[in-house]
Amino acid sequence: MRLIAGSAGAITMNDAIAAPDHGTRAHIEALLHEIETLIADVEREGGAQAKTWAAAIVRPDFAKSALNLAHYLALRRRDLRQLQRGLMPLGLSSLGRLESRVIPTLEAVRTALLALLGRPPEFARPNPAFLAGERRLAKRARGLFGEAGADRTALLVTCPTEAADDPQFMMGLVNRGVEVVRINCAHDGPEQWLSMIAHLRAAEGATGRSLKLFMDLGGPKIRTGGVRAPGDGARLRNGDLFAVAKPGALPAVPPTVPFAVECTLAEALMDAQIGDRLFVDDGKLGAVIERRAPWGVIAHVVAVAERGLRLKPEKGLNFPDRHIQIAALTEKDRSDLAFVAGHADAVEFSFVQSADDVRMLQDALAALRPDDWRSMAVVLKIETAEAVANLPDILVQAAGRQPTAIMIARGDLAVEIGFARTAEMQEEILWLAEASDTPVIWATQVLEHLVTKGTPSRGEMTDAAMAARSECVMLNKGPYLFEAIDQLQPLLHRMSANQHKKAPQLRRLRSW
Question: Fewest CB atoms within 10 Å of the CB: 101, 145, 148, 159?
Answer without folding.
Answer: 148
